Amino acid sequence: MGFGMLSLPQQVAEMSAQEREEVEDFTVYFLRKTLTGGFPREAYLDMGFNKTEIDEIRDLRKQKAQSSDFTLFRQLFKRDIHHTLVNNLHRCGILSDNMKGKLESELRVNVAEHLAAD
After folding, report:
1. 10-residue block means of pLDDT along the chain (118 residues)?
2. Which residues, 6 or more positions from 96, have their beta carbon under 8 angstroms from its beta carbon?
3. What is the pTM of this model?
4. Under a CB-based contact definition with an 8 Å cutoff, are residues 20 and 96 in contact?
5. What Rg value do the Cα atoms of the chain yield, rounded?
């Protein structure tokens, strides 16, 4: 991450509008996969679990994630990861108005709150 934070701002500044749009689209795609906690069904299939076992594992993971034992941790983690994410995108020069809109509408990240907090 440190290398990216040092090299990306200049790289982004030199991009054409089309390249920048591609980077933003890729970033949103990657963040959607990362932040929404997609279930890695293919990995479980590769490990030999059957459909019923995979469904049981997915349900258990959902139950654990929603339990009160993890609620505060998840809230704090989400706040901190959103804060770091928004500010790193800003420092790299990727946080255009278009990108802000996608973060807010597709990923429910309050961009203005996290930029103001830094």
Report:
1. 80 93 90 76 88 91 75 78 90 91 90 80
2. 20, 24
3. 0.68
4. yes
5. 18
